[in-house]
Known about the structure:
It is built from 9 helices and 11 strands.
Amino acid sequence: MSVPVIIMGAGGRMGSTLTRLALESEKFVLAGVVERAEYSAGLESLGCPVAHDLEDALAAAPEAVVIDFTAPEVTLAAARVASRTGNPVVIGTTGLNGAQIAELEKLAVSCRMFWSPNMSVGVYALTRILPELSRILGEDYDMEITEIHHHHKKDAPSGTAVRLAQVLAGARGWDLADVGNYGRHGLPGARPARELGVHALRGGDVVGDHTVYFFGPGERVEVTHRAHSRENFARGALRAAVWLITREPGGLYGMDHLLGGLA
Ligand SMILES: NC(=O)C1=CN([C@@H]2O[C@H](COP(=O)(O)OP(=O)(O)OC[C@H]3O[C@@H](n4cnc5c(N)ncnc54)[C@H](OP(=O)(O)O)[C@@H]3O)[C@@H](O)[C@H]2O)C=CC1
Ligand SMILES: O=C(O)C1=N[C@H](C(=O)O)C[C@H](O)C1
């Protein structure tokens, strides 16, 4: 059976990748796309209903899974609609603030919802091995993260960098709110041991690179993930859509549930 999907932000970088992959696969039916009116030109050629808001799209495809890689306010509005209609939602949007994430968590109690700032298997693997690496190396090793993205990216640091920072801070029993240092300038002084630097570079058409550094005495370890294309993110989101339709609402699901076997 093919899974009907509605793609939010279909004219965007991720939206257009998702629509292409959904059209190419027999596992999915592109049941609708949502895009702002001024950016909808050309989307009719996709051969599915083109709507300017999610409610209209769902009226034409009431069983669809909604996939949203847009912007925080748009994502929250879509999640509120889906929580009323009961449609599952897969969210890849980053740059959400704490209140927005808390609202998603609340909506997800009664609506099937999946959110991950990075849908690639490679980054998920990093989140699993980094705590172990941190433990083996020990607290003599200073941890820093750099991320590089294309010059169109609006949020910084990337959602992935924030997630990796949370994982690393958690591995040392630290609270990221206390230890995160986001880009140094001026006269910050010597680096405290209890700190986690996170630094964002922007330029060109870089899809997404993340490097975690462990700087130790006389050596350093670097662990890098580089995305070569947006297809791995889109494939992860489509995989999450298939997985989500068989779930019950159970809080905000993520890659740990999809790939780590958590219920
Ligand atoms: N989780 C993951 O694996 C990944 C997450 N991302 C995240 O996904 C998000 C989108 O990234 P990207 O595709 O590069 O960004 P784009 O700006 O290319 O795409 C966002 C799209 O959403 C559209 N949009 C804005 N408002 C609305 C609206 N009201 N209704 C429908 N569509 C709307 C935008 O239109 P307009 O141009 O008019 O604003 C645009 O087409 C970002 O938060 C990014 O960080 C990206 C890659 C992977
Ligand atoms: O905006 C992007 O492009 C990406 N955003 C995600 C993030 O913020 O982590 C994931 C990926 O790195 C690409």
